[in-house]
UniProtKB/TrEMBL annotation, chains A, B:
Residues 1-25 are annotated as: Disordered. GO terms for biological process: ketone body biosynthetic process; L-leucine catabolic process. PROSITE patterns: PYR_CT. InterPro entries: Aldolase_TIM (IPR013785), HMGL (IPR043594), PYR_CT (IPR000891). Residues 8-274 form the Pyruvate carboxyltransferase domain. NCBIfam families: PRK05692.1 (NF004283). GO terms for molecular function: hydroxymethylglutaryl-CoA lyase activity; metal ion binding. Belongs to the HMG-CoA lyase family. CDD domains: DRE_TIM_HMGL (cd07938). Keywords: Lyase, Metal-binding. This is Hydroxymethylglutaryl-CoA lyase. Pfam families: HMGL-like.
Length: 302, 302
């Protein structure tokens, strides 16, 4: 049995990645959700994305949401941007932690942004320069890192090559996205094996979807390899665009529940996170796929 | 990273443990489900239980179900019995693999059968003798091995003591039941650590519920400790009696999907198991909590 980390940093992505994949909700609701999350003790929140409102109407009010949200200084907030226009908006709003995305799968990248992976990598190099000039830090999220719904398996060496490239271009952080829940512990081991030694100095974050039930197993596999940063979405907000009705992001309260029982600290108040999940469920008006929201933590006795 | 087993034996428990925790379904449907499962390549099926029809109406037709089911010789079938009357019925029906249950939690055992754990262990000693005399093999399932919804944590030493006792009384096999999904990888490690060395010669089977999302993570933790036998329920049939709407057993197709991608053989045809899960969903008339049923395996591309 491998030793496990003593603590883990969770980034809550429900307000952005979660709500972006749900039917649009009112600005008020978004602000309430961010404020509830900010009070849970979570250290990081992906708050909004600055994308074109016609492309993603769910984020059309990003500026207002961000302006109205409480921003306690102990929480680090980040925003996702697709291009230089979005980057300028994020900087103007005061964000200093910015995420950009590229898909390891060429097909997936073309479907998403009508450009090849190589073209997007050129765009990202320019974005990193722009954002660094403004004093911001940049995380590159590599989508479909564990498999692509169009192409199937993605060679870990391809993902590692993208890491090499964006690191050379100045990326401050790397995230590996399991965009449609194709990851398994074997894929986690293979991908981390391919990148860990070459990039021991860069913070790596893993972003799992629970589409096929493997979310927490993948996190366990990553913990055993020393990974200490994970994305999670309150209540499991955010479905899977390729499989209507299927689960999306791992639910934050499920991740926290498992980690705490394993003696791994997160700084998060689990009961407060479960309350935030209940709020998220109320906001989107559909049953969210979180077992801990449904059944309560294991410590809640009959 | 720990080496993992090359193959795993799954016991399909949907027809018994699953359907026993759903609203009653017609005899025809049960036979269809068992027959579909028998054709998937799964090596073992828990087919029925011989319990009092007033206590568990879902199993009132156990004799007829078993009589009508196809029984290809490559599948091993088992039945669960609560007492000597049930044991006699199971033997008369031709079963040679029998399961009996006791809860590690005294409170849970009293709620289930109105007897203390110690009293049930005396009953089980007599049942083992009766069944051995008839040439059957006996598995003792220790429920609430990873926590009790009434008492909370269960000391692994208490579970280990129960193993000592039933082994001394002749139990041929031991199963640890995570009856209400309170297990986490930490609990798996602790329990196996407490029993493995003392009982290296007895087959151990783990039975997880996915009530709080940890089902596959627990299986991964157990695989890393060399466990090669798991229960699973097609489609995730069987809810959680303590949390209405919550998930019950781990879904067989989710377990098989993860294992196969990790290069661990099960002998099961995953697509056939997914078809059986669709049949299970049709039979119970409610949406089952299986991600692989919903989204398909990772190899099924858009």
């Amino acid at each position: 049995m491998e030793p496990l980390p003593e603590s883990v940093s969770i980034r809550e992505v429900g307000p952005r990645d979660g709500l972006q994949n749900e039917d649009p909700v009112p600005t008020d609701a978004k602000v309430r959700l961010i404020d509830a999350l900010s009070a849970t003790g979570v250290g990081r929140i992906e708050a909004v994305s600055f994308v074109h409102p016609k492309a993603i109407p769910q984020m059309a009010d990003a500026d207002e949401v961000w302006q109205r949200a409480a921003k306690p200084p102990r929480v680090r907030y980040s925003a996702l941007v697709p291009n230089s226009r979005g980057a300028q908006r994020a900087l103007a709003a005061g964000f200093t932690e910015i995420e950009v995305v590229v898909s390891a799968s060429d097909t997936h990248n073309r479907r998403n942004v009508n450009r090849s992976t190589a073209e997007s990598l050129d765009d990202i190099a320019a974005l990193i320069a722009l954002l660094h000039d403004a004093g911001a830090r940049v995380e590159v999220i590599i989508a479909t890192s564990f498999g692509c719904p169009y192409e199937g398996d993605i060679d870990p060496a391809r993902v590692a090559g993208i890491v090499d490239r964006v690191r050379a271009d100045g990326a401050d952080r790397i995230a590996f996205g399991d965009t449609t829940g194709m990851g398994t512990p074997r894929r986690v081991r293979e991908l981390l094996g391919a990148v860990r030694d070459r990039h021991a100095d860069v913070p790596l974050l893993l972003h799992f979807h629970n589409t096929r039930g493997t979310g927490l197993a993948n996190i366990l596999a990553a913990l055993e390899l020393g990974v200490t940063e994970f994305d999670a979405s309150v209540g499991g907000l955010g479905g899977c665009p390729y499989a209507p009705g299927a689960s999306g992001n791992v639910a934050t309260e499920e991740v926290v529940h498992m980690l705490h029982d394993m003696g791994i600290a997160t700084g998060i108040d689990l009961e407060a996170m479960i309350e935030a999940a209940a709020l998220a469920e109320e906001i989107v008006g559909r049953r969210l796929p979180s077992g801990v929201l449904r059944a309560g933590p294991r410590t809640r006795l009959v």
